[in-house]
Amino acid sequence: NAGVMQNPRHLVRRRGQEARLRCSPMKGHSHVYWYRQLPEEGLKFMVYLQKENIIDESGMPKERFSAEFPKEGPSILRIQQVVRGDSAAYFCASSPDLGGSPLHFGNGTRLTVT
Amino acid sequence: AQSVSQHNHHVILSEAASLELGCNYSYGGTVNLFWYVQYPGQHLQLLLKYFSGDPLVKGIKGFEAEFIKSKFSFNLRKPSVQWSDTAEYFCAVNAGNSGGYQKVTFGTGTKLQVIP
């Protein structure tokens, strides 16, 4: 059973470009979470999605960031017009249901903005 | 809003030493508590979790944690560490929400280095 797959593993973008981060949850998991880890900080919740629905995006910056989890295909975290402060590790996690099942994490995408 | 505090950012121990990593959370209601570990170059993995019942929780690889509700703490322990325990450890809490999903809050992590 493949784990949570994130790609790319490393992404370098110049200021002003767009970054697209992809996450395929574990098979059978329909709940996806995105977290961001800034240097020397813990993981911060960004957004929670179910298929075709954004349930909670309270941790997402109001501008330039968006997320989707379409009916078919991976979940996408999109950052438009990236700035240096967006440089971080972005982790995706999935779970099979609501409630107590622990989150299964991907290896993360390390975004570097030059 | 819920928050999680991990008191130690870096811990260096010799093999066979005992380990205790502190974790405190702020939330007055029912919580689910977790410890995750991230080995170098790998993804976060669940070490152990507490939902209810016995406050002393056993996890993988000889780790355990004790939930002390009166102290809002969930400290991680291991009697004798090994070099292979070198990793970063994250305490996390899910204080629940009206939607029932896992809006988990993580601590800043503790980097453990075990010296052979």
Task: Report on this structure.
The complex is a heterodimer of chains A (114) and B (116). By secondary structure, chain A is mainly beta. Chain A contains no helices and 11 strands. In chain A, the strands form 2 sheets. In chain A, strands 2, 4, 5, 6, 9, 10 and 11 form a 7-stranded mixed β-sheet that branches. Chain A has a 4-stranded antiparallel β-sheet with strand order 1-3-8-7, with no helix packed on it. In chain A, strand 5 and strand 6 form a beta hairpin. Chain A starts with a strand and ends with a strand. Chain B is mainly beta. Chain B is built from no helices and 12 strands. Chain B has strands at residues 3-6, 10-14, 19-21, 23-26, 32-38, 45-50, 56-58, 64-68, 73-78, 87-94, 105-106, 110-115. In chain B, strands 2, 5, 6, 10, 11 and 12 form a 6-stranded mixed β-sheet that branches. In chain B, strands 3-9-8-7 form a 4-stranded antiparallel β-sheet, with no helix packed on it. In chain B, strands 1-4 form a two-stranded antiparallel sheet. Chain B is globular, with a radius of gyration of 14 Å. The A-B interface holds A 3-4, 31, 33, 35, 40-45, 48, 55-56, 91, 93, 95, 98-103, 105-108 and B 4, 6, 32, 34, 36, 42-46, 49, 51, 90, 97, 99-109.
- Tell me how many strands of chain A there are: 11
Number of helices of chain A: 0
Described by its quaternary structure, the protein is heterodimer
Distance between the termini of chain B: 41 Å
List segments of chain B where confidence is low: pLDDT < 50 over at least 5 consecutive residues.
Answer: none
Going by helix content, strand content and strand pairing, the class of chain B is mainly beta
Q: Helix and strand succession of chain A?
A: EEEEEEEEEEE
Question: Could you give a short description of this structure?
Answer:
Chain A has 114 residues and is an all-beta fold.
Ordered list of secondary-structure elements with their pairings:
The complex is a heterodimer of chains A (114) and B (116).
Chain A: E1 5-7, E2 10-13, E3 19-24, E4 31-37, E5 43-50, E6 53-56, E7 65-68, E8 75-79, E9 88-95, E10 104-105, E11 109-113
Parallel strand pairs in A: 2-11
Antiparallel strand pairs in A: 1-3, 3-8, 4-5, 4-9, 5-6, 7-8, 9-10, 9-11
Chain B: E1 3-6, E2 10-14, E3 19-21, E4 23-26, E5 32-38, E6 45-50, E7 56-58, E8 64-68, E9 73-78, E10 87-94, E11 105-106, E12 110-115
Parallel strand pairs in B: 2-12
Antiparallel strand pairs in B: 1-4, 3-9, 5-6, 5-10, 7-8, 8-9, 10-11, 10-12
